[in-house]
Every structure is written in structure tokens, then in C-alpha cells.
Amino acid sequence: MAAYVQEQRLCLPAAGCPGPLDGPVATCGMSRLLGGTLERVCKAVLLLCLLHFLVAVILYFDVYAQHLAFFTRFSARGPARALHPAASSNSNCSRPNTTAPSSGLPEVPSARPGPTAPVLPPCPDSPPGLVGRLLIEFTSPMPLERVQRENPGVLLGGRYTPPDCTPAQTVAVIIPFRHREHHLRYWLHYLHPILRRQRLRYGVYVINQHGEDTFNRAKLLNVGFLEALKEDATYDCFIFSDVDLVPMDDRNLYRCGDQPRHFAIAMDKFGFRLPYAGYFGGVSGLSKAQFLRINGFPNEYWGWGGEDDDIFNRISLTGMKISRPDIRIGRYRMIKHDRDKHNEPNPQRFTKIQNTKLTMKRDGIGSVRYQVLEVSRQPLFTNITVDIGRPPSWPPRG
């Protein structure tokens, strides 16, 4: 009996189960080991349950927020549909002769507006696609079909508008012409790509003098001014160009400014220098207001020479000044050719130049007389054939 009581005491908690690991003492150690393991397992399960609960709460609030946003948008569409009875499926389809109840607000038309053209930004003052100095040569054959393939964006009549921006000006390029088809092909080949890179809205007009009488360049330019405006009254810039001159740098922008512009200031035939300070020949540009201010160009210069100086005098007499590009940019190549028949030097040009102040008010755009014989819109230009009359009989010299 005493031995049994001693074995029971060995299992008391206070005793820490000392003694040998056999018999009842070993059983007590295993029980404590299993109890500690169960306690740790229960704690781990409790932590997992708590984590699962937190995740469930977070997901619940996220889904709730999404449903709340959806119903908010849905309820916001309801009043808008009520303001547009024609857009609702239950409006008046079942009773076409009834009137929908008024909401007290102004009635909104149910028709959908048609598509509107996109608003393009202004074209940049310095176009980004310019090349700079160009290689110009006139030896390769230049059929019009090739030039047309090279310029698919140019419309019938030689019209072009940039597709990606809105130009500040509408430019009419006027070319006085007779029997220069070979030169015209080269001009179109080089100038169309240049003008397109300059982001210009433009049209090209070839003013063809009918017949074989003496050539009158300035009068043809007056005709071109008037005929271009008949086709498009929005032209506000006019570039007057000889057909045998091609710019060697596309930074020479064919635009009009505050003052009349002289573009061809350095031709190869003059050693790429300005021949004299008052030279205004070859290629020039005036705005519509500037052109009208000087009464256009003179009509009485029949034959070669003198009209450019008369135009320079008109500009100076009206208080304007000539604007020119940098001489490194205003370089031009001229297509070599013999002097045209019926374009001999004008023997009266020097006398007329001295009298510009007396003649400019009566001789100009207001007094030009001509007859249009044909207007032909070609793929790359508009050809206008005109009868400008004949020169007066000059008294014999000497």
C-alpha cells in the first residue's frame, strides 16, 4: 500500500515527474508532450481562421464598392433618358398619336448630329519636313505622267491643301507662259514637292498668251491675278514666277508678308548675286492688299525687260519696301534657253520706267483688257489661254 501511494505521488504536477522513465512516470511525460502539441496546433488553426476572416472582409467591401459604383452610374442614366423621350424604347412607340408628358424642361431634339470635320492645328511657321539645299538638274527626261505619279495629293487644276494642319494663307502661283512646255514639266516636277513640304494651301495657274504677237509678261500676271480670284476668292497671297526658274532651297518659303517679297535674289546666271539693288525680277510675291495698293502691274510693257523695274518703282512710290530671304537661301537655277521669238527687248522700256509715277494710276489692274479663250484644269495646273491684244505701233527709232 505504501509503495502504491509513492508511485501516485510521482505523478503529481508539483513533482515535475522526476525519476526513471519507466512505468507510470513515462506515461505522464508522453501526456504532457501531446498536450503541448495540441495547444500549438489549436493556436495555428485559430490564426488561420482569423486570417481567412480578414481576407473575407476585405473582399466583401471591394465587391460592395464595385456594385455601388455600378448602381450609381445606372441611376445617373435614368434622368438623362427621361429628358430624351425619343431615345427611350418605351417613349411613344405603342401610341404614336399621344404626346409625352412634359417634364417642365426645354425639349431636346432627338436627332443625332452629323459627323463634324476635325479641327486641324495651324501649320507651323517653320515646317518640319524641309530638306534645305536641293540638287537641281535639267538633263533627265521629265514626262508629265511621272510628275503626276510623284504628287498624288495634288488635285485637279494644281490645287493642294495640307492634310494635317491649317495654313494661314491661300496662295495662287501665277506663271506667264507661251511655248515653254519643256520648262513647265521641270517646274512642276520640282515645285510641287517643295510647296507641299512648305505646308501651303495653293493652286498653280499657267496663263498662256494666245497667238504669236509680242509677249507681255506683266499683263499676263494681271490676268492671272483676276482669273485666280474668280476661281477662289479666298486667295490672299500671289506668287508670280517665271517658268524657267527653280529654287535651290526649300527653306525659301513661298508666302506673303508685311512687305512685298522678292524670292529669286541669287540666280546662277548672275553668279548667285543680286544684279542691282532695285532688281525685282524672276519670282516675287505680293499679298492681295499689296497688289491692289500698287494698282497691279503695268500693261504697256510689250517685249522683254522693264516691267520688273516699273513694279519696283510702284512699290517704292506707295511707301512699301522689298523683303528678301538670305542670299544663301534665295538661290535659283535657270533652265538655259534661247531668247523667245516675239519677245525682243522693248525699245521704250527706259522711258517708261522713268514715268512710273505718272502712269501707275491709269495703267494697271484696273485697266487691263483681255479675253479668256479656254480654261483647262489639268492634273497638275490650271491652264488659262487668253487673248491680250497686240502692242501699239511704235514710231521708228532714230
From TrEMBL:
Keyword RNA-binding applies: no
InterPro entries the record matches: Galactosyl_T, Galactosyl_T_C, Galactosyl_T_N, Nucleotide-diphossugar_trans
Region Disordered, annotated ranges: 85-122
Domain Galactosyltransferase C-terminal: 261-338
Known cofactor(s): Mn(2+)
Bilayer topology annotation: Single-pass type II membrane protein
Name of this protein: Beta-1,4-galactosyltransferase
GO molecular function ontology, one term from the record: N-acetyllactosamine synthase activity
Lineage: Eukaryota, Metazoa, Chordata, Craniata, Vertebrata
Gene for this chain: B4GALT2
